[in-house]
Design brief:
Elements (H helix, E strand, L loop, with lengths): L10 H23 L5 E5 L3 E3 L3 E3 L4 E4 L3 H8 L2 E3 L7 E5 H11 L7 E3 L4 E6 L1 E2 L3 H17 L4 E6 L9 E2 L3 E4 L9 E10 L2 E21 L14 E7 L18 E2 L14 E2 L9 E8 L2 E9 L8 E5 L6 E8 L2 E4 L2
Parallel strand pairs: 1-7, 2-8, 18-22
Antiparallel strand pairs: 1-4, 3-5, 6-8, 9-11, 10-14, 12-13, 13-14, 14-15, 16-17, 18-19, 19-20, 20-21, 21-22
Length: 335
């Protein structure tokens, strides 16, 4: 190297070289710092929930220099569905599985801190039995008043145990159905998160007055009921569970299945259609053969009206024939 090639170091040269070195170091540090920052996650203490649709941020603490990633984790959905009205536990594995399912790109950046599980308590409320009985009784009264003018509804003693339920549980009354009875039930349905929790029966003593048909006098079994046998009165019909009859036209001409006493409410199960010939009855039988007419008796094996054919059995021989009903307890055999 020639002596003239060596130039003395000047202050300007030193400053220029230092600037270049600073820029290089800064670029290297910047390159190394661009890696995604970790996200610290840990359970919160004393978690209390009021409903089943929960965000992850309600269960865990989330800290990170990456604010967007932290906010994204906090808003992940943790769907417990219908929460039980008690305490339950949540594990670290459950939380990590939620992150893996909804934000898999953030899973490798998670650094777990603290316990591997935590207890969760569900906020509950107590249901007032007296208040439920009042609501159910009012609903039953409204239903009865659409059908009857004079009614009475009284709550019966209940041994039903009503547990505490989740604070956002829904309580509804099931619609009243069926005929009026002396004892009627109104069902109270408790649901949570759209799922049934419990159904509670509440019992009531009921009376409801209506015009009904009663017997004016005694009516023997199997006797045909006439208009003179029926009178209409206003009575409590709840004991008859819809079997009572209000219109005498539905009764007159029918027969009593069993004896009816005076003043007895006539119900549908106490009468039947009237037939000229009744199965099991003795029938006067007329046989036409040539110019001869024979009179005998047989036992009807079927019931029938006038003009209908029925089977008749002869008691002595045990043989059977077919005869046409021609009147009350009378039939005729044609050749």
């Amino acid at each position: 190297m020639q002596a003239e090639d060596c130039q003395p170091l000047t202050l300007a040269g030193l400053l220029l070289g230092g600037f270049v070195l600073f820029v290089g170091l800064t670029g290297a540090v910047t390159a190394r710092g661009s890696a995604p920052s970790e996200i610290q996650v840990g359970f919160k203490p004393h978690v209390v929930l009021t409903h089943g649709d929960v965000s992850l941020g309600q269960l865990v603490r989330v800290q990170s220099d990456d604010a967007a990633a932290a906010d994204r984790l906090r808003t992940l959905n943790v769907a417990f569905g219908a929460l039980p009205p008690a305490a339950f536990s949540v594990s670290r594995e459950r939380i990590l599985s939620i992150i893996a399912a909804q934000a898999p790109d953030l899973l490798e950046r998670i650094r777990w801190e603290g316990a591997d599980g935590t207890g969760v308590r569900v906020a509950t409320k107590s249901l007032d039995l007296t208040q439920l009985e009042n609501q159910a009784g009012n609903a039953l009264r409204r239903w009865l008043l659409t059908r009857f003018g004079d009614i009475s509804v009284k709550a019966l003693p209940s041994a039903v145990q009503i547990p505490a339920v989740a604070s956002d549980a829904s309580v509804s009354l099931r619609p009243v159905e069926g005929p009026v009875r002396s004892r009627m039930t109104v069902w109270v349905d408790i649901t949570h998160g759209g799922l049934p929790v419990q159904s509670i029966p509440l019992w009531f003593a009921v009376s409801a007055s209506q015009s009904v048909c009663v017997t004016r006098r005694s009516v023997p079994s199997r006797a045909e009921i006439g208009s003179q046998d029926v009178v209409v009165r206003v009575l409590d019909v709840a004991p008859y569970a819809g079997r009572q009859i209000s219109d005498p036209r539905e009764i007159v001409g029918h027969r009593a299945i069993a004896p009816l006493s005076p003043g007895q409410v006539i119900t549908r199960d106490r009468i039947r259609d009237s037939y000229d010939v009744e199965a099991g009855d003795e029938v006067a039988l007329r046989l036409q053969q040539g110019g001869l007419t024979l009179q005998t008796h047989g036992i009807a094996l079927q019931s029938g009206q006038k003009g209908q054919d029925v089977h008749i059995r002869f008691p002595k021989s045990g043989s059977m024939t077919v005869a046409r009903v021609i009147g009350q307890d009378r039939a005729e055999v044609f050749p």
